[in-house]
Amino acid sequence: MGEYIRGVVVKLHVTPxxxxxxxxxxxxxxxxxxxxxxxxKDKYGDSNKIPTKNELNQFxxxxxxxxxxxxxxxSTSLQQARDDxxxxxxxxxxxxxxxxxxxxxxxxxxxxxxxxxxxxxRPVENNTLTxxxxxxVIFSTSIEYLDLLNSPNTKFxxxxxxxxxxxxxxxFNIETNPPEQLPLTGKHIGCDINSNKKGWLVTSERQxxxxxxxxxxxxxxxxxxLMSKCRKRSRRWKKLQKRLQKWYNKRTNQLNDxxxxxxxxxxxxxxxxxxxxxxxxxxxxxQFVKPHNTSxxxxxxxxxxxxxxxxxxxxxxxxxxxILDRDINAAINILNRWFNGD
Length: 342
Prior knowledge:
It contains eight helices and twelve strands. By secondary structure, the chain is α+β, with helices and mostly antiparallel strands. The strands form three sheets. It has a seven-stranded antiparallel sheet with strand order 2-6-7-1-5-4-3. A three-stranded antiparallel sheet has the order 8-9-10. It has a two-stranded antiparallel ribbon with strand order 11-12. Strand 3 and strand 4 form a beta hairpin.
């Protein structure tokens, strides 16, 4: 089987009956997580003790007896909620960066459930996904991902089904063969990543990439104003809520797509490093240099213009008279510093 773990997301096209079952499973999974956490607090209070899986499993059995409707949902999704709670406890006591587990709220937690895959069972056949308790579900995705999911070399670990307010999606955790290694070009490029909200990325080859969500933010703000004037849960309020959710999804999808293509923040830098290791393991990868005065230093003569202000995007070098683009000049200086070993 494969050596690389990947995630593939597809859009599900559910029937009305399946949508009812999905929403029921979402609620039961959240309820199970909260019930186990509540039983832990009743037993241990605010103790720093990490519950064992056996203890949480005993809490799960008690919850199923107290709440018979939990038995009607898929069992492994409830077990995954138990495992998620156990992992949350371990992370909270292992590192200060993680908070202690909290109760899941309908408003703050994206509804989801996760199913494990039984041995020698393939959940995907062509564009059909088979889920326990839910039957066969049609999904849509790209041809590349469809071939990957139907490949005999693909091993399925688990499937997470979630709802974004408009559509249902399935996220596959799979193991597959390593991708084909790309040839090295021998080229080096300097990149300047700005910290503004618009997300500029400029290269030493004078290429600029731009991510702009101003229009999306204005539409979200406008729809929120319209919703504030409507009676809550009215017909118009519900229509506006769906419209608002579409704009939220559009903004999120644009940002995710931008992160996949550009170096927008540290999260993407990590992804970029992973991709270098995956596709070009022999390359130098991502290298960092000191960013101090990269924008103020003229890459032609080396003069440092300390009076350059942040708002000045184009400036004339006081020494050699060259007209410089601030961001491109910074990207070229970054590349030169790496060559010089600074």
